[in-house]
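User: I'm putting together a teaching handout on how multi-component assemblies are represented. Below are the sequence lines for each component of a complex, exactly as they appear in our records. Could you produce the 3D structure of the whole assembly as structure tokens, so the students can see both representations side by side? Please keep the chain order the same as the input.
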Amino acid sequence: MSEPVQLIPGNSLITATPQEGRELAIKMARLIIKVTQPDAEIREKLRAVYAEDTAMLIAVGQTVATEFATIAAANNYWR
Amino acid sequence: MSEPVQLIPGNSLITATPQEGRELAIKMARLIIKVTQPDAEIREKLRAVYAEDTAMLIAVGQTVATEFATIAAANNYWR
Amino acid sequence: MSEPVQLIPGNSLITATPQEGRELAIKMARLIIKVTQPDAEIREKLRAVYAEDTAMLIAVGQTVATEFATIAAANNYWR
Amino acid sequence: MSEPVQLIPGNSLITATPQEGRELAIKMARLIIKVTQPDAEIREKLRAVYAEDTAMLIAVGQTVATEFATIAAANNYWR
Amino acid sequence: MSEPVQLIPGNSLITATPQEGRELAIKMARLIIKVTQPDAEIREKLRAVYAEDTAMLIAVGQTVATEFATIAAANNYWR
Amino acid sequence: MSEPVQLIPGNSLITATPQEGRELAIKMARLIIKVTQPDAEIREKLRAVYAEDTAMLIAVGQTVATEFATIAAANNYWR
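Assistant: Of course. Below is the structure of the complete assembly, with chains in the same order as your input.
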């Protein structure tokens, strides 16, 4: 049996700093794309597309913002 | 009478870990698509479309992020 | 005077289980479309469109996720 | 001086029932469109467009869901 | 050195009424567009575009709904 | 080894005023685009695109609204 894909590095939403929380949000957003499109070669092509497409870059930003909202709440906003 | 479609595996938002919460978010997002388009063959075709379409992969990620926000709150962020 | 359209079955956000909460979210999302486009025949045509359009299926999923977030909070996440 | 456009009927988020909360969400969403496009004739034309466009009907549903989340929280979910 | 653009009139999220909260949400949404596109003439042209485009009017409504959710929470929903 | 990109200026969500919170939201949204498209020249071209495209300007506003919601909660809404 194949191992399940790791969807949250460290299997925790708790991070030491906002910067690390932000990095986690980016990774979590990318891992959903990875699990939906497991072929690394295709993903590489798609990445080339969205890195030069303004609308998609903004959409990526929206997803990261949503993931980060959850992570920030989990960490009591690092107050 | 046909059985209702299962929309939340285990009929609970509580999971042991963030990883399992993330897996639940993915399943919940997919089950909404299943109930809206019950034909498995058509779904398979549509899946082939979005797995190679960057904008749709990002949109899937946005939905999963929204589902996960709810699951994470339900689990008090696994603190 | 015509009766107002029922927008929330049972006029309550409280449900016995997460599964029922999810079913309520789907119904609430559909009832907004019904009230915006009251013609059943046109709705039937539009439904045929979005059931075979990947981007729209994903968008429906996003709306259901948003409705469900509210319902889940109303039910204290069925903890 | 012209009177300001009424953006929230009754100037309150509190409603007696979830049904009334849902109706308020729909009105609030429409009033934003009204204030952005004050010409009633143009609005009528645009309305004809979105009532027969699946993607736009879904987008309207997303906005109503977001407004309703705020109204539901304001009313402690009518628990 | 140029003064920074005012992004929140009054530099506060607190308002006397829901109506004023709604007006603030509209202004905050517009000020983001202003700071992203500082040229008033171009903005005027873009405004003419979105005031007659249904999809964009709905998108403006979505943004205002999101800003308003924050303002409403800040004001404890004017309960 | 290259230094990690700074994703949150000051590595904190806490700001003195709503205005500063809003400025932070704009910066955080931009830094996600920067880390996704590290080439400054390409970013400059993309920026020229979205500054004159109404739909993208609205989408940027949506992302900033989402980031700001998190920052506002972190600061207890500067009450």
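A couple of points students might notice: Helices of chain A lie at 18-36, 40-50, 54-74. The longest helix of chain A spans residues 54-74.
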